[in-house]
Structure formats: structure tokens, C-alpha cells
Q: What sequence folds into this?
């Protein structure tokens, strides 16, 4: 019941916010209500995390009930370490995002309540996606997340929102529908095998012929590659990010896009291990292209939001690379990366959003020297930026290192090329920082205020987490690792043995 | 002397009830004064429909499983081989009666036209003439629409259960003729309405002849018009049977015309646009359902033995219907025309389920072609009637405003109405948690299980195309600022409100909890031969 409560709480909150009498005329009430709901959800998530037995691994808090017996669909939820990590990310970011959205200037202020209601609805659906262990339920929730996000972009975004929203929807819908075709195929297979079922536990052992497996795998993978987003299916993301509010962009990039990479682990790797092996060389090459392509395009952007969107394409490349290298190290690193990237991107999108709202423009060339008048804002942007370029001591460094180290054991050329992504990351972040924050103060920027208390409060938890996890990633990794190991075992890959092992005796001799 | 036919009146009673009430309607028309007719006709029709519904449900409960059936099947061939009362057939009856009840609510809505029905006062008047304005002044109404609807309905019910090509042809005409007349009766925009009726009549008559010709050739091939006997001839054949192929093709043309599949769809947009909106809703939902079940019955029962001859043809028809309907709908600027092309696209999705010809696993209830199509027809029909009900509410001084440009900003004026329409659009698009999703799921599952996975892939891609124009309407209603005056929404009467609300509730409930209905259609079994 715990997971149902966790997922339903924000959805009930969304209904409350949307239907509260007089909500449309009282934006303040709406915001307080939304924040309260998201904080309650966070408390519930912390309770779940506290009860989670990391050492045991496997799926916990399992719920399973027959839902549509006619086709064998179950209402089945469960969390393993990977799912828990992402649920925590979702519930931590939601209050941050809601607090940061306090002052958003919406195109239609009379509908502020729907803005916050959709955010909460998205939170609830995302939790459901991370917890679903029935592929039919997963698909339903996966597609359902499109609706709130579509309205968040299309109804509450900025210039070009309608176009961006439709582009977002069509890309994701096409991907999702291809997955639907694969799920239909799974249904046909399980029906033929006896009992139709969509349960993760039963699909894992399903006997599929190699050709069919590849076909079904492709349906799933393309859906997740669109969502993640991977080159060349990424083009919806920059448009959507540039046309939405900073909070929407965070929900989209930090949470919803993670569904793509999360689902690659849960559904592609575990159900189609053979096809995953078959596809991994191509996927890894695509991932490396994403890394470099995203980074190069980020360097060339003038719109800050598009820049951050392209950095995300690059970072998602690392995550996918880690997943498809099939080593415990890299896949754990990729999972950790999902969490860290969520935090660092949230900080970047939100703090630049505050900057953009003050200036009324997102163009880098319109800024300069801001750190002189708003040092705290500049400082937080610097921390967010440095975490994005994986500075040692900040959280993403460890995950990126794990991904690269794991990849090295599988393919040295790919790892070397991917490592260039780090250098490019330094270029795009530091150039952006230099142009906006340093140098003489540009005329027209005199009115820029320092962060106020509310904005600082919204950003502080994420910054603290980035720094803390940079030094102490252990607790999170101890949750992730036991869940990653069975996945790697399922794919049938073994961690490569180093060619020159250091045996225990000689290691001891050095001390 | 001709011996009297042996009929089991009980299992056939839903047909008799509907036809009987249609005749009663005619008598009422002649016997009652003008003041009382409308109300009495409405109530009589409602009683007739509810009675037939109750009887149909009871008949369904009484269906027995024939002993020799290899697959799950219920019911038997009745009326000396003319009618088959079986699981899918009776479910179609129930479905059609529900559609008719919902449509009746729209037929009887008098709130929009200053207390008059949505049908013209005196159809014989020349549009725009003095006589016509006199008819309006005298508040004339055509109350014959109710018996006409019942006649059409009885034809549809017979069409879906006919086990004999001649019975089927008679049913086809009984369902078509009243619809031609109904199409011409719009109160507003008389000329376009008459044009629609004319077009529908000419093309409909043309396609009927194809059907008849096919039936004659089938008779020539097998020596019988009875589907069961044709089946025996087809299954026992040794040659390729050129005559049989032509017969199948001709019959397919006649039936594909009725369901609006490409390339026999040309009438659909004009007729949907010109017909009075309540009739459009009824026609779109009910005609398609009846014709689809008839199509499946003919091809599964009579030509089942030749399925490898006709299946590839239907694959092609399914693909071009899905793609054509979805692509052309994108370019539409009129809501009713857009819904017409959407109905063409849906015919394509239904054909995907049908052309897989998946009969399931022996003696097990799984999603077969028949059960998935039945489910799809229910969810499509309900959402269609709901969508046309919404169309009938959005009006300005000249009647309904169906031009999409006038719908901009509807979501800001009347969020509930626009929200419901958006729900129907999402269901048509097959977005999860709406009934349309489970419907699409069903036909695709049957198609994959039947071995036609490429159709499934094309189908999902066509769904994405279709989603584009459904979503465009939502964008228009919610995200676009209204131009000029913007749309005016007439306060809907009780009946229309109830219809819209019921359709919306069904669409959501079947999306979240489709289990019970899926269970019913899965246990309906195959067609009885």
C-alpha cells in the first residue's frame, strides 16, 4: 500500500489544487497548497526510503492485484534500488520546483491553479512509472505523463509554446506507440505460451526467439531513446526547454527524461538480454555521438535554456553509455548519474530561469558582469555549472568517473572519445559563466536583483545535496549496487577481469 | 400451400420489438394531434428502445453453447437459416440499442432552436422560400424522424445477424433508406443537407448493387445464399475458384462502402457534414457497428475457408484507410468533416483487427478478432456520439459553428465542455487511461496474434499521425486566444447534457477499468455457422 499512497498523494493534491473553491482567484493559496502536498509526499518518500532494506536488494514494498484479468494486466508496484533512487529524486525536486515557480509570470495568470495542479499530477505519475512492475501499467503511466507535461509547456510556457508542445508530444507519442506495438507482441507471446501476463517477473523468464526479441527490443528502445533523449531523436528537447518555464524544464529534463534511461535498464536489459547484447555496440556509438554532439552544440548556443538542454543531451549520452557497457561499475555509475544530473540540471535551469526572468531575455549576449551586483546568484550558477562539468568534489564527478571507468574495461576507443565530452563540458559551462557573470556590467542590467529569500530557499537543498553527495556517495551507491548486479547477471555479461590483477597478498605488502 | 415458417419468437423478439415500435410510431403519427406528437413519439421511442434492450440482455443470457463448436461459441442459427442469434450478434444488438438511446437524447433536444427540434419543419419546402419561413412561424416539426430512426435501427440489427445474403441485402436497404431521408432533414443549411442526402443515396444505391451482384455470384458458385451452405462449398473447393473471388470482391465493395473504408469512403465527409448533427452521430456510430459485424460475419462464416484469398486484400485496404484517413483529416477546417475523416481512419484500425482473422485458442477466452472489434466499436461509438453532441452545442446565431476557426479559445469560455471534447479527442487518439486506448490495444493484440505484426507497426504510426490532428483541436480550444467574438456556447438542455456526460463517463471508465466489458466480449465467442 505504501507505494500506492506515495503515488496517489500528489495526484489527490493535484485535484485539490485544481478544484479548490476560489482557487482561480487566489494564487497564493494554490501555491501554499501545492507546496504542502509536495512536502507531504517527500516525507512519505523518506519513510519509504528508511524502510528500504538496501542490503537485501530486489523488489520491495511489492503490491500486486489483478486489474484487467481479461488480458492478464496487473496493478503491480515494487521498488528496487534503482527505482528508489529515482523516486527520491522526483520527490526531492518537486517541492524545489514548486517553490521556484512561485514567481513565474504565466501567459494566463488566471489559470495559475492548473499550472501547479499539472506539476503535482506529473509528480504522482512519475512515481508510478518508477514503481510499476507490470509493463502494461508502466506503459499507461509512461504515456500519461505526456498529458501534464504537454499542458505545462503548451498552456503555461513562453514564446513558441504551442509549437514546442506539439513537437514534444508527437515525438514522444511516436516513440510510445512503437513501444505499444512491442507490448502487443509480448502479449501475443505470453498468450501463446499459456497465460497472458505483463508482470516483470514473468517476462524475465519468457522464451523468445532471437528475431522476435530484436524486433520487440527495438520498439522499446526507440521509445526510451526519444524520451532520454538520444541523438538523433533529441530535437524536441531544446525547443521544449526554451519554450517552457524553468520549473517545467526541470520536471521534463530532470525527472521525465530519466524515465527513458531508467526504463532501458528495467525493460530493455532485463526482458531482452540477448537483443541488448546484440544492440549494445550500436547503442554505445550513438551514446558517444550524443555526448560530443550535445556538447558541441551547447558551445554554440546563445539561448541559455537551449544551452542547458544540449548539455543534457550530452549527459544522457554518458548515462546510456554506462548502461549499455554492461559492467556493474558503469551501470551503477549511470544510475547514480541520473540522480546527480537531475540535481545539477535543476540548479542550472532554476537559477538561470531566475536570471532570465530578471532580464526579460534568455540571450547570453545580453548579459555580462552580473556577479558584481548579484554575487549569490552568480555563485549558485557557478556551483551548478561546475557540477555539470563534473568537477571533482561535486556529485556528478563520481558518477561520470564510474561510467568512464566501466566503459574503459569494455571498449577503450569509445571511452577515450567519450572522455573528450568532459573537456567540451568545461568549455561550454565556463564560456557561459564568463559571458554572463564576469567582465564589466553591461548597460541595462542595473535592475538585476540579488536572489531573495524564497529563491535561495528553493535552490539551497539541491546545492547542499550536490556538495554532500560529491564527498559521500556511499549511501546512495549501497542502495543502487545490489539492484544493478542482478541486471548485469541477467544480460549475461561478466565484469571483465583486469589483465594485471593485484592479488591480496602483494596489496597487503605495501602497507 | 406455403408452410408457415418455424420461428423461435423469443430469441428474435428484440428485432420484433424495435420494428413493432417503428410501426406504432407511424400509427401515432397519423392518430395524434400535432401538439402532442413530439412528446409522445419521444416517449414511445424511448420505451421501445429500453424494452428491446431489456429483451436483448435476457436473450443473451439464454444463449446456449452448441455442442460441436471447436471454439467457444454461443447461440444458434434461427428463423430457418435466415438469422443467426449468436454471442457477437446479440452484443451488437445491445450496442446498437445503447447508441440509439444516446442518439435519441440528441434527436429530442429542443432547446437550441427556440423550442423546436433540430430537424426541418417541413422538408418539402424549397430552402429559403416563404413557405419555409411560414413553417417556422407555425412551429412545424417532422416527428417522423423517430419512427425513421427505429426503422433504420431494426435494419441495422437484422444486418448484423443475417445468415443469408438476401436477408442481409433486405436489411441493408431497410437501414439505408431511412438514413437517406434523415440526412436531408437538417433545420439549418438546408441545401447542403439535401446535397448530402442525394449523394448518400446515389452512392449507397450504387454500392448496394455491388453487394447484390456479389450475392448472385456467390449463389452461382455454391448454389445457395445461405452463409452456412456457402461455407461448406468454399471449404470443400478444390480449385482456385475465379467466380468465388469475384463474388467476395463484390460483396466486400458493398460492405466496405457502408463502413467508409478507402477507396469507398468518398461519401463520408459530405454526408457527415451535411446531415443534421444528431443523425451524423447516430449514423457514424451505429451504421459502422452494424456494417462491420455484417462484414465479419460474411467473411468469417461464408468465406472463412478462403481466408488466405481475402486477407491480403483487407491488409491493403486497412493500411490505406488508416493512412489516408489520418493524413487527410489533418487538412480539415470543419469539425464535422474532421470527425468524418477520423471515422475513416477508425475504420482502418478496425480492419486491422478484422483482417488478422484471429480466432483464438480452442476453448479459451482470449482477445480474438471478433471480440476486439466488438470492444472497439463500443468505445468508438460512444465517444463519437458524445463528440457530435458537443458539436451540436457550439453555436452562433446561424446555428452550429462547425468551422474550426470559431472553436479557438473554447476552453477558456467553457472549460467543462471543451474538456469533455478534449477527452473524446484523446480517446480517439488512443491515449492511455481513455477507452480508445484499450480499443486500439485490443485490435492490435488480435492482429499480432493473427500473425500480421507489420500491420500493427503501421497502425501505431498511423495512430501518431491521427493524434496530431486530434491534439490540434485541443491546442485550438485551450492554447489559442479567441479571435473576434469567439465561440458562443448555447446552454445545453438536460438531454444533451446527459448524453455528453454519459459518453464521457463511459469513455473514462472503460479506459481505467475495461475488465468487465473485455470479459463479456471475450466470452461472446465466435460467430455461429
A:
Amino acid at each position: 500500500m505504501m507505494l500506492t499512497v506515495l503515488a496517489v498523494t500528489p495526484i489527490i493534491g493535484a485535484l485539490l489544487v485544481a478544484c479548490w473553491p476560489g482557487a482561480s482567484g487566489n494564487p497564493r493559496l494554490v501555491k501554499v497548497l501545492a507546496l504542502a502536498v509536495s512536502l507531504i509526499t517527500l516525507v512519505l518518500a523518506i519513510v519509504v526510503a528508511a524502510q528500504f532494506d538496501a542490503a537485501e536488494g530486489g523488489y520491495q514494498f511489492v503490491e500486486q492485484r489483478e486489474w484487467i484479468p481479461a488480458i492478464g494486466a496487473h496493478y503491480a508496484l515494487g521498488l528496487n534500488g534503482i527505482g528508489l533512487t529515482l523516486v527520491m529524486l522526483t520527490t526531492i525536486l518537486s517541492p524545489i520546483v514548486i517553490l521556484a515557480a512561485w514567481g513565474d509570470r504565466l501567459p494566463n495568470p488566471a489559470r495559475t491553479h492548473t499550472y501547479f495542479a499539472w506539476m503535482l499530477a506529473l509528480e504522482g505519475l512519475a512515481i508510478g512509472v518508477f514503481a510499476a512492475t507490470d509493463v502494461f501499467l508502466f506503459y499507461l503511466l509512461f504515456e500519461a505523463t505526456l498529458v501534464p507535461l504537454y499542458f505545462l509547456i503548451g498552456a503555461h510556457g513562453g514564446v513558441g509554446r504551442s509549437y514546442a508542445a506539439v513537437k514534444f508530444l508527437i515525438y514522444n507519442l511516436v516513440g510510445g506507440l512503437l513501444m505499444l506495438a512491442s507490448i502487443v507482441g509480448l502479449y501475443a507471446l505470453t498468450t501463446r505460451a499459456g497465460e497472458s501476463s505483463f508482470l516483470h517477473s514473468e517476462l524475465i523468464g519468457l522464451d523468445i526467439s532471437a528475431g522476435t526479441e530484436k524486433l520487440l527490443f527495438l520498439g522499446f528502445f526507440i521509445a526510451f531513446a526519444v524520451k532520454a533523449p538520444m541523438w538523433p531523436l533529441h530535437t524536441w528537447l531544446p525547443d521544449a526547454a526554451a519554450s517552457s518555464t524553468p520549473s517545467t524544464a526541470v520536471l521534463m529534463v530532470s525527472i521525465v527524461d530519466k524515465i527513458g534511461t531508467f526504463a532501458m535498464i528495467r525493460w530493455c536489459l532485463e526482458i531482452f538480454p540477448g537483443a541488448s547484447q546484440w544492440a549494445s555496440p550500436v547503442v554505445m556509438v550513438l551514446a558517444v555521438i550524443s555526448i560530443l554532439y550535445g556538447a558541441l552544440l551547447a558551445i554554440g548556443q546563445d539561448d541559455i535554456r537551449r544551452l542547458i538542454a544540449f548539455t543534457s543531451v550530452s549527459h544522457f549520452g554518458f548515462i546510456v553509455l554506462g548502461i549499455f557497457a554492461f559492467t556493474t561499475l558503469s551501470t551503477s555509475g549511470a544510475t547514480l548519474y541520473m540522480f546527480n544530473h537531475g540535481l545539477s540540471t535543476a540548479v542550472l535551469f532554476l537559477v538561470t530561469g531566475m536570471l532570465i526572468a530578471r532580464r526579460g531575455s534568455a540571450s547570453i549576449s545580453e548579459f555580462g558582469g552580473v556577479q558584481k551586483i548579484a554575487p549569490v546568484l552568480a555563485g549558485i550558477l557557478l556551483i551548478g555549472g561546475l557540477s555539470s562539468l563534473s568537477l571533482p568534489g561535486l556529485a556528478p564527478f563520481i558518477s561520470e568517473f564510474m561510467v568512464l571507468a566501466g566503459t574503459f574495461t569494455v571498449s577503450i576507443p569509445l571511452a577515450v572519445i567519450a572522455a573528450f565530452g568532459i573537456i567540451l563540458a568545461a568549455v561550454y559551462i565556463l564560456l557561459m559563466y564568463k559571458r554572463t557573470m564576469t567582465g564589466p556590467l553591461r548597460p541595462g542590467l542595473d535592475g538585476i536583483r540579488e536572489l531573495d529569500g524564497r529563491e535561495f530557499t528553493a535552490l539551497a537543498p539541491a546545492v547542499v545535496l550536490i556538495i554532500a553527495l560529491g564527498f559521500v556517495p556511499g549511501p546512495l551507491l549501497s542502495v543502487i549496487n545490489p539492484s544493478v548486479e542482478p541486471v548485469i547477471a541477467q544480460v549475461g555479461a561478466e565484469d571483465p577481469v583486469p589483465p594485471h590483477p593485484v592479488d591480496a597478498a602483494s596489496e597487503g605488502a605495501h602497507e | 400451400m406455403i408452410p408457415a415458417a418455424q420461428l423461435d419468437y423469443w430469441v428474435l423478439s428484440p428485432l420484433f420489438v424495435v420494428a413493432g415500435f417503428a410501426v406504432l410510431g407511424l400509427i401515432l403519427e397519423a392518430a395524434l394531434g400535432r401538439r402532442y406528437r413530439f412528446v409522445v413519439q419521444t416517449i414511445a421511442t424511448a420505451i421501445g428502445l429500453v424494452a428491446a434492450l431489456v429483451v436483448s440482455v435476457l436473450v443473451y443470457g439464454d444463449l446456449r453453447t452448441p455442442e460441436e463448436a471447436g471454439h467457444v461459441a454461443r447461440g444458434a442459427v434461427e428463423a430457418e437459416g435466415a438469422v443467426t442469434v449468436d454471442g457477437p450478434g446479440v452484443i451488437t444488438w445491445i450496442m446498437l440499442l445503447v447508441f440509439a438511446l444516446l442518439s435519441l437524447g440528441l434527436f429530442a433536444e429542443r432547446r437550441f432552436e427556440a423550442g423546436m427540434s433540430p430537424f426541418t419543419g417541413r422538408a418539402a419546402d424549397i430552402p429559403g422560400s416563404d413557405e419555409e419561413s411560414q413553417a417556422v412561424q407555425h412551429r412545424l416539426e417532422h416527428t417522423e424522424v423517430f419512427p425513421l430512426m427505429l426503422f433504420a435501427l431494426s435494419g441495422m440489427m437484422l444486418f448484423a445477424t443475417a445468415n443469408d445474403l438476401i436477408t442481409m441485402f433486405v436489411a441493408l436497404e431497410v437501414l439505408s433508406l431511412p438514413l437517406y431521408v434523415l440526412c436531408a432533414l437538417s433545420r439549418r443549411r438546408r441545401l447542403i443537407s439535401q446535397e448530402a442526402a442525394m449523394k448518400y443515396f446515389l452512392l449507397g444505391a450504387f454500392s448496394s448493387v455491388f453487394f447484390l451482384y456479389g450475392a448472385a455470384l456467390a449463389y452461382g458458385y455454391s448454389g445457395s445464399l445461405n452463409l452456412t451452405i456457402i461455407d461448406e462449398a468454399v471449404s470443400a473447393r478444390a480449385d482456385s475458384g475465379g467466380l468465388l473471388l469475384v463474388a467476395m470482391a463484390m460483396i466486400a465493395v458493398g460492405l466496405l462502402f457502408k463502413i467508409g473504408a478507402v477507396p469507398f469512403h468518398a461519401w463520408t465527409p459530405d454526408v457527415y457534414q451535411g446531415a443534421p448533427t444528431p443523425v451524423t452521430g447516430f449514423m457514424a456510430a451505429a451504421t459502422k457497428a452494424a456494417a462491420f459485424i455484417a462484414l465479419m460475419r460474411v467473411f468469417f462464416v461464408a468465406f472463412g475457408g478462403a481466408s488466405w484469398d481475402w486477407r491480403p486484400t483487407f491488409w491493403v485496404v486497412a493500411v490505406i484507410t488508416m493512412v489516408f484517413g489520418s493524413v487527410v483529416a489533418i487538412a480539415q477546417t470543419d469539425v464535422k468533416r474532421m470527425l468524418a475523416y477520423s471515422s475513416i481512419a477508425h475504420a482502418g484500425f478496425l480492419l486491422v483487427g478484422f483482417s488478422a482473422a484471429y480466432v483464438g485458442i480452442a476453448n479459451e477466452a482470449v482477445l480474438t478478432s471478433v471480440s476486439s472489434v466488438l470492444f472497439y466499436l463500443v468505445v468508438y461509438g460512444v465517444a463519437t456520439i458524445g463528440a457530435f453532441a458537443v458539436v451540436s452545442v457550439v453555436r452562433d446565431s446561424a446555428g452550429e459553428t462547425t468551422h474550426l476557426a470559431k472553436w479557438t479559445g473554447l476552453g477558456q469560455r467553457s472549460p467543462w465542455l471543451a474538456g469533455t471534447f478534449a477527452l473524446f479527442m484523446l480517446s480517439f487518439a488512443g491515449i492511455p487511461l481513455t477507452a480508445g486506448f484499450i480499443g486500439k490495444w485490443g485490435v492490435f493484440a488480435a492482429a499480432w496474434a493473427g500473425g500480421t505484426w507489420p500491420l500493427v507497426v503501421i497502425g501505431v504510426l498511423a495512430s501518431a499521425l491521427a493524434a496530431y490532428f486530434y491534439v490540434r483541436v485541443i491546442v485550438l480550444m485551450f492554447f489559442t486566444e479567441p479571435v473576434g467574438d469567439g465561440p458562443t456556447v448555447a446552454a445545453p438542455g438536460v438531454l444533451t447534457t446527459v448524453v455528453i456526460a454519459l459518453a464521457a463517463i463511459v469513455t473514462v471508465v472503460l479506459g481505467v477499468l475495461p475488465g468487465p466489458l473485455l470479459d463479456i466480449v471475450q466470452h461472446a465467442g465466435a460467430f455461429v455457422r
